[in-house]
């Protein structure tokens, strides 16, 4: 099976321990993560060949990020080295009614200053079958958006399946363009889109409508807007999250293939160990399922939602749940018994 | 706005990590706290000028306590230095059906041996509008009780609003007097009293009656007893706690202004990160609300109860929730979403 | 009161912190535990004289295990020293829908190579009234099984009460014999057996029947099978566990004295701090209760089930809950209030 | 005694524990420091009123820095809030022949974008007698250099003593100007300069000469260059460091008052716990000494050098040695006996 | 071989990690120790039966101390339970020229309030051959001094060897008596005394003389003073310490049998991991050697001094060096090679 | 440049922190290492393509080892999966006169049970130029020895340079053969041998002679023995270590090319952070140097010895010093200055 390539930013994540507030912390756990890389880790963890393309500064912090990529069995053959710093995000993990806080410190990161024509996408995609990107990358800088467009175009030209996660972060998008000026051009090449309808309307500059996810019969019309503007689109998926509180989520998912809505049952997720990266876990689960020959759509959405649920029990950005654990949960066994 | 002064003891808190029992611990987290100081931190955290008056030993442990006071933006201009030791409490944090355990080791602390006529209360209260104390201080020693009385009298004379938290701790009160011999004299100057009715009856030496907090109509008669004995009293408040288990509380609150009962809706608080100091968080929220020009009573009790709830999600004695977080919860949003 | 002796293996337990997966861990918490030793710790914690018989390697790791035995007030007077290594188990603590994982690394441990005729059981049992063993020991090796049989026979001969925990671990039993070839001979001397009916049928080579623990009336017939094959049997007990997820269990218990079924009410156990050793906590609670003169059977099963529940709130293999805490829970108070 | 004001940047310092290399670290100790702030902490620690002027971002990381300032008893009354981020430096602590590594990540920090005319220096200096700055601040950005010049000019106009630490960091000075274009104008107002002669010649654009610190007779001529260009200069001081290895330094110092060279004896410093901030400790010790009425020059250089030595034994940027500890070492007692 | 009994206080020791100053610490390592208990641990570690007599409060902190006693294979059969608190000492570990700091918080500890006639010394000493106490115990309170005298008298009466460590701590001795009023009566029963001559003269109220330990010929006359006042005295020993700095000590020792001075060669001890308890390690080594049939005096002082040196490499109060390690060092091999 | 292949065991290393003895440890740092893997990490760290061949159990602990291999940029393409367990070694890090202790727990590890004809060595060596093994592997089991011989023979046949580290561990070699029965056959293919002469004589069954490394003129005759029995031998190297104590080593090295002795100057190494793996660091430095076109022999031994020295400052088994750091030290600069 040919590899899956993802492109984006990997950040140093500095998180407080034991639910401490920032002002109480005298140390930070240092891990690494970022939406598109998290998807690559999920896939590698499932045994899929995965490669991550990014730009890292030539210093010890950049080297730490590289070592993290390699540790999780993700190829780094086309990582570009340059720039001044690795982007950082600070994370304070909430509990109960107190939500987690993320402070971004990612301006002027190595990837923000990436230049077009410096990544040899033809070579990157030579032995690849799938390309994944998300809306975080074009939100970083106009340079990053331009390179993302390069990648999408080349992937499309070379016949790869392209998946796009809308991933809207309002605190990014500071370089002078709005999502609707950038995202439609990027999204048009997609075969798979992950995102909720509100974000989709906003990012594509469409009029806002109120989706009612409980009423599945009402959804196809709304999703069809995306099918209209993306000629190759095969699937749209949405992660459904209801936040009881920071430690208790309800998670489901919807997959729509242009004809039928497939629903993953809503599951209680409590306690939440770490919810950062749970959308990426969903995406990783979805790509994995759609890479299988069967492409059983009900199983695909069940697997993606189960992957998302299990991610909430794992510290850090990555979904390190195994295929077996996810399959067992997707099949309805949420008992979490001791394996011994 | 003029400052709020609180007076009492700050202790070294030595707590086990990760729900370990004392016998399993090879280290203790070292933080600092104490009822009246916790209220000062809450207020400083909300942007109110707050000052804490206490007595600290002249050694490195006393200096650590002083640095903690300053760190949290609380003034320490009238802290007295002397005595032999800082009081200590050991804390083992429970979980589920296992309750937390507190072991007090606070006898002969610096403040237990404080002398009357050594704090210049007139200077302390010069630019203050509010004085807060609690029933823990007169429980420590007859000296501490005497200085507390000095403070209350001077605050009253200088026209400050006085708030009193009954805060009964049965393991204190060892110096030969019972609460009912000490507390009535202290309480009579109060404008605001926080406490449950059982404690109020006990501490004021009144006959025990069975309050039924579900039946709010029955409460005014009971609260009126306090109004009768405290001529300046404007508000009595009670924190309502139902303990499902150590990790799951239900929290509400009642505010009574002599005419009307204001109720804060009962909220589920789970998981509990740390419940020590949650009463002080309630008090801090209440004082903050009553310092506002509006003095909206329903909002005041909602804010106080929400402050109490959020404290449960924060490690240590202090309520470090922000005004925004508390207001959001008081307004009914308990979703705890990630802020990024 | 004469002492209780338990015999079995104590292992080094290496567990990840903070719910980390193995691949994320850069250190392991190092504690010690093992089914029969855990029972001894429970009893010593309740004030009963307890002794643990095992075999430890003569190296620093074996010495650590010995120090752990002594620390928890368990006598180690007949511990045998020899062999090459202490058995190890790695533990990754799950959360929510992700179950905990145990990896055994206990082959060729000191006790696996224990020889018959090397423990002076007559001396061990001289001042003892009770002997406890579990199905883990005969599962380790044929040597361990043979020494276990020695012990059971001598204990029986010397008139001790014998309790047996079936404790089936499918990943052990690698030395060529099946449980049904070994266990019936060992079990026949039992006065008390702990285990569920499925395991009992399997280990005694009986035909499988489907017990319905909700329907208590149906159980005596099934339990009577054990009474038929164990002439001295007085009690059979079963721990009832329903796993909502790894962080949420429902725990009850059944005690049958050959005539009547005694039921402990099902209790919610959430959050789970550590469920390893909870069966041993049940056993410890049961032995403690049956050692009391009263032998009140309803109280016994209540106490055993409450001990099991409280164990889930305690990190490590041992039930370090106090008599008071367990009695309070057994009496129905699960509020987990702060003790101060 | 009137206060001492310092102006500059405070950074988040992220350091690896236990001499780990960056690639081995899974967490960072999070402390705060920066040359001019470190001097303020030294002085506050000695009981001198000290104030630190800086610019902090309005986010939780900026608030942590503010709390650190307050904790160490340094006034923060004129701190400006604004900008996007707090500067960061990563620190890997070396040992033996492996030197420590610092990675700066401080571009676009809050203070880098400070604007002139936004700090009310007249108010800052109202009750001050001394102003201290260092060459790090004008190295950050042209804005920071401009505000530094504002400060120096106003301090000079208001009659404060001005101390300047040359503090050359080659990895800063990226904004297009060389030190020699900026520093001479700033330095001309100095009363006290700390720095070695090489740096002084380089920063003032003078021809390089080879100072021989062993040959004290040769030094006045070289130092006199600085006296020539700084009309108010009273003292020049140099920290002498000989690095045996990262864990073993030899530390001395020179003070020159335009007439006489005062030498502090070279001391062995081993082991080195943390040498970052040792120059600031020297500066803090020197300012403290020169603030004393006596202004005993030999004592001043002895105290400054002893402060520098003791800083090497303290983790973090700050010199937290007490007056007594430094005086004892300055007086020749380096025995480091247990105080009990 | 019959057991060795020691009597005194065991304290909770709260120490900062990584050489942090108290003001930097957010947690404390929690261990237990105390001069006489440390000696018992040394002996148990060497395989000698040892028992420790003390008084512990009946709370969880007292129970932790008890568990520590048992863990290190020291008998606790005559420990008395009562009193309010366990004594505490805070420890900040120095480095280089910065000495360690100890803050005592041990007033009103359980043992300070011990009563005479409550320990059954006859039973304690029934199967004992040696009793050890130190000058710390009579320094705590008059009660502790009185019980110490009880013990010494009974030990003497029952024919035990009695060793006494002078152990002067100036911050104790607060209860109104001076050492010279208390110690001579206690010391007169000694067979072995450990201490330096200055302390001996001070504690026995003798005129101060200046011992010159380099000049061994001059020492017998000075030591003979002790022999004069203690009729049963067989040995006096002195630990020689020269403190280069807190991380570098030079350690030797002297043993005098009333006739001959035996010298242990001065050894370099660097780095120092923890020097607290090193005198107790010396004492433990000396008792061990004198318990051997040979009583080779040169070997005894070599072993005691080597035990003292090795203690400096071990964290905590206890000397956990093995017999083999100490013997190897006593025999001159200080190479510290890896044992594998 | 073609890759370097190493073959051997990777173990889980469980080490105590902060110089704690085993009995004091409540957690272990978990890292991974092993002689031949350590060499591969060194080379990868210097930018050389390196591959490690081993056998790992198919469980999470084996997967952790695999992730460690990948993290450090070492290829794992021919790692075999199977067997029951990963070998373990426990490490207690000494200090000063107390040596470190290693406890092996590596019997029945995955690689001990490796079978011949299961590694496709021809494929492994296809793009390789150098093969490295050490005497640890044939010491594990006869199976491991047999596979090692397979590897050496195929490497020789395919023209690779072969380096052999004698690496004698007396606690291994338990399977019934002595080194002299196994090693000569393996060593005969060597081009480079690392080891001291004593070990060489012992392992090759030669008569013991006393080498005098100070007298370099005497060495060629002794080394020539190895040249006689290894027809392709080009270089013999010896690491010279003088252990002042566990924290202070003196390190040098000798390289002999059959004609000339090249000496690396003895260097003081203090403090020692971790000396495990320092021989492998020497080997890695030597291979790196000999891979350079120049093959300057004096530079080679200088670089190897400097690599060995720097390893002592790094925690864990690996030499993570950079090329620049080693070259700087090899060139004589041991000042360990801060790089910023």
Which SSEs are present, and which pair or pack?
The structure is a homohexamer of 340-residue chains.
Chain A: E1 3-7, E2 11-15, E3 27-33, H1 35-45, E4 50-53, E5 55-56, H2 60-71, E6 80-81, E7 88-92, E8 101-105, H3 121-124, E9 128-134, H4 137-140, H5 142-157, E10 161-165, H6 179-187, E11 192-194, H7 197-203, H8 219-229, E12 235-245, E13 248-256, E14 261-269, H9 278-291, H10 297-311, H11 323-330
Parallel strand pairs in A: 1-4, 1-9, 2-7, 5-6, 9-10, 10-11, 11-12
Antiparallel strand pairs in A: 2-3, 7-8, 12-13, 13-14
Annotation keywords:
homohexamer; transferase (chains A, B, C, D, E, F); Ribokinase-like (chains A, B, C, D, E, F); 340 residues; 14 strands; PfkB_dom (chains A, B, C, D, E, F)
According to CATH, the homologous superfamily of chain A is Ribokinase
Could you report the average pLDDT of chain A, rounded to the nearest whole number? 97
Report the count of strand segments of chain A. Answer: 14
Query: How many helical stretches of chain A?
Result: 11
Q: What does the largest sheet of chain A look like?
A: 8 strands, mixed
Kindly identify the CATH topology of chain A.
Answer: UDP-N-acetylmuramoyl-L-alanine:D-glutamate ligase
Which band does the percent of strand residues of chain A land in? 15-25%
- Low-confidence spans of chain A: none
The CATH architecture name of chain A reads 3-Layer(aba) Sandwich
Rg of chain A, please?
A: 19 Å
Oligomerization status of the protein chains: homohexamer
Helix content bin of chain A = 25-40%
Question: Biggest sheet of chain A: strands side by side, in what order?
Answer: 4-1-9-10-11-12-13-14
Order of helices and strands of chain A: EEEHEEHEEEHEHHEHEHHEEEHHH
Largest interface: A-D, 28 and 28 residues
Briefly note the structural class of the backbone of chain A. Answer: alpha/beta
Mass-distribution shape of chain A: globular
Q: Tell me, what is the CATH class of chain A?
A: Alpha Beta
Please report the distance between the alpha carbons of the first and last residues of chain A.
33 Å
In the residues of chain A, how many domains can be counted? 1
Pfam families (chains A, B, C, D, E, F): PfkB (PF00294)
Keywords (chains A, B, C, D, E, F): Kinase, Transferase
GO molecular function, one term (chains A, B, C, D, E, F): kinase activity
Protein name (chains A, B, C, D, E, F): PfkB family carbohydrate kinase
């Amino acid at each position: 099976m040919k590899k899956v390539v993802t492109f984006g930013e990997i950040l140093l994540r500095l998180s407080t321990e034991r639910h401490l507030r920032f002002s109480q912390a005298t140390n930070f756990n240092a891990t690494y993560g970022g939406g598109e890389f998290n998807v690559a880790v999920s896939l590698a963890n499932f045994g899929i060949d995965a490669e991550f393309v990014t730009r890292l500064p030539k210093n010890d912090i950049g080297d730490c990020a590289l070592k993290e990529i390699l540790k999780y069995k993700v190829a780094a053959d086309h990582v570009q080295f340059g720039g001044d710093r690795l982007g950082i995000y600070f994370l304070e993990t909430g509990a109960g009614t107190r939500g987690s806080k993320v402070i971004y410190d990612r301006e002027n990161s190595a990837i923000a200053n990436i230049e077009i024509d410096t990544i040899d996408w033809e070579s990157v995609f030579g032995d690849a079958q799938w390309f994944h990107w998300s809306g975080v990358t074009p939100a970083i800088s106009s340079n990053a958006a331009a390179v993302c467009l390069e990648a999408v175009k080349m992937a499309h030209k070379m016949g790869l399946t392209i998946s796009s996660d809308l991933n809207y972060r309002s605190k990014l998008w500071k370089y002078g363009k709005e999502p609707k000026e950038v995202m439609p051009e990027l999204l048009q090449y997609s075969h798979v889109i992950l995102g909720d309808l509100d974000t989709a309307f906003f990012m594509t500059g469409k009029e806002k409508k109120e989706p009612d996810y409980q009423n599945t019969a009402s959804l196809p019309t709304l999703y069809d807007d995306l099918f209209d503007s993306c000629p190759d689109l095969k699937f749209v998926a949405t992660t459904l999250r209801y936040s009881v509180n920071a430690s208790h989520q309800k998670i489901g998912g919807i997959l729509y293939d242009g004809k039928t809505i497939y629903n993953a049952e809503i599951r209680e997720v409590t306690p939440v160990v770490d919810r950062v990266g749970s959308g990426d876990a969903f995406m990783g689960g979805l790509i994995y399922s759609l890479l299988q020959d069967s492409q059983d759509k009900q199983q695909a959405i069940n697997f993606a939602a189960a992957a998302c649920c299990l991610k909430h029990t794992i510290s850090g950005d990555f979904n390190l749940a195994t295929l077996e654990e996810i399959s067992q949960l997707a099949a309805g066994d949420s008992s979490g018994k001791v394996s011994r």
